[in-house]
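Model it.
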Amino acid sequence: MNVYVCIAGILCFLLGIVHSILGEYLIFNSKRNKGSLVPSKKTVELKERHLRILWATWHLASAFGWGIGAILIKISVEQSELDSTSIGFIIQSIMYTMFLSSLLVLIGTKGKHPGWVVLLIIGILLVIGN
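Modeled.
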């Protein structure tokens, strides 16, 4: 088993879970009508349809993280049995995605959102594990 790739996959899952839970609590909870799953309290700056797609996109990022985490864990467990060229391409694609995502969050939040650090760590683990 490739421990570095496995840890990167686990971090993807954890980041997705924390992302969804904190997003619901810190961002969307106050924008939801009581008993409603999807936030719909429009504001002067944000129409209801925009709020709804922001909510969906927020959780979409978490779902993508879980999918990537599952791929990385599967690769880490069965890496020796899989085609090394394809696995190398998949890991490098995910690695570059994590580095770019880390940079975007770093720049977009001026370093104040800790997500960029986790994304960077995932990228580094993939460099070491590949």
